[in-house]
Amino acid sequence: MAKIQMTTPLVEMDGDEMTRIIWKWIKEILLEPYIDLKTEYYDLGLVKRNETDDQITIDSAEATKKYGVAVKCATITPNAARMPEYNLKQMWKSPNGTIRAALDGTVFRTPILVKGITPYIPTWTKPITIARHAYGDVYKNVEMKVPQGSKTELVCTDKDGNVTKETIYDFADSAGIIQGLHNKENSIASFARACFNYALDLKQDVWFATKDTISKKYDHTFKDVFQEIFDSEYKDKFDEAGIEYFYTLIDDAVARVIRSEGGYIWACKKYDGDVMSDMVATAYGSLAMMTSVLVSPEGIYEYEAAHGTVQRHYYKYLKGEETSTNSVATIFAWSGALRKRGELDKLDDLVRFADCLEKATIQTIEDGVMTGDMYLISKLENKKKVNTEEFLREINTRLAAML
User: Fold this and answer.
1) Three-class secondary structure assignment of the chain
2) Cβ of 278: how many Cβ atoms within 10 Å?
3) CA distance 337 to 341
4) How big is the CA angle at 291 (ends 103 and 113), to the nearest 5 degrees?
5) Residues 46-64: pLDDT tens digits?
């Protein structure tokens, strides 16, 4: 067959360790035989980020704004142990954090369901998408240890020099700790619009939850902003689409989620989303079977796998040892980006290819051919464990038949 032609490039962000190896194989085995792949390439591997003082990450985010769709490989966020290993100038920030901030985006994470891998919550027959706010909270906090006898205060000085103070705590009887969090109403508004727009795309309900009964200003502001935007901008659209927006307290939301069948978007503040996305991924079976897409309020999309760089398998690979690494989430990052590119550019063949790639991947697993992590939890009677490259070639056999 003639290769599918692309008209607009994708922004391609390469990454680190085993996922970097898988990235190359996915392109060679599953994409390039069928697509005249056009990408604007950025190497976000730790070596290149160090060489460029992380400017390449900023450049990749700007390119994403330009082209509208990006696909990203997993990357290392270095800790102290990585400093000598990579001869780093400093512990560079998370590329994901940099890109999220640049796009003012919301992260949506959704499990990939396959027969044979049963969720730990038996009622979950449909995927639950976690929408995680990407700004502020504890990730941008200021914190202090305070000695006994200290009096701590929140102090706000407005633009006219007027000062407002609130006592946090008087540590007369003990030393202690304090923490200051912040958020911005324009970021919360972007979060709300991204959730509501994504819900309209997927035709799914939105659930949102905070603890506004306890946090009567911070959390309550989230609740109020969501409600105001929904009522003024989205209520009629949701009614027309036959979906709803639902607000409840975070503890009630958890109870409802556990009893539900899934099939909705669960919007969470940043820390809540960090925790709940891992809980949902584990309960569905594997973080390696979880897609992640960053969506900006302007409709810019960046697709990636929800997992990390698979360091342990990479060290085995460097020794020449065989690995059986799950590539499903990375494949779905590519398929998601290609589908969105095809939708925006009205390239039906590219959209169809993305659909077939996902179907071939799921069919491979449901035929009993899978990597080691899935082999351990699959309940299929006839199953076979294959190595990393064999799994991709098995997918390609089914993909070629579909095309």
Assistant:
1) CCCEECCCCEEEEECCHHHHHHHHHHHHHHHCCCEECCEEEEECCHHHHHHCCCHHHHHHHHHHHHHCEEEECCCCCCCCCHHHHHCCCCCCCCHHHHHHHHHCCEEEEEECCCCCCCCCCCCCCCCCEEEECCCCHHHHCEEEEECCCEEEEEEEECCCCCEEEEEEEEECCCCEEEEECCCCHHHHHHHHHHHHHHHHHHCCCEEEEECCCCCCCHHHHHHHHHHHHHHHHHHHHHHHHCCCEEEEEHHHHHHHHHHCCCCCEEEECHHHHHHHHHHHHHHHCCHHHEEEEEECCCCCEEEEECCCCCHHHHHHHHCCCCCCCCCHHHHHHHHHHHHHHHHHHCCHHHHHHHHHHHHHHHHHHHCCEECHHHHHHCCCCCCEECCHHHHHHHHHHHHHHHC
2) 15
3) 6
4) 155
5) 999 999 999 999 999 999 9
CB count in 10 Å sphere of residue 84: 8
Give residue 299's pLDDT band: very low, low, confident or very high (50, 70, 90).
Answer: confident
Contact 328, 364 (CB under 8 A): no
This prediction's pTM: 0.88
Q: Which of 106, 269, 80 is nearest to 201 (CA)?
A: 106
What would the mean pLDDT of 122-134 be, rounded to a whole number?
Answer: 92
C-alpha separations of 351 from 266, 295, 338, 339, 357 in Å: 27, 19, 7, 5, 10
- pLDDT tens for residues 240-275? 999 999 999 999 999 999 999 999 999 999 999 989
**Residue 248 backbone class (left: φ over 0; alpha: ψ -120 to 50; beta: rest):** beta
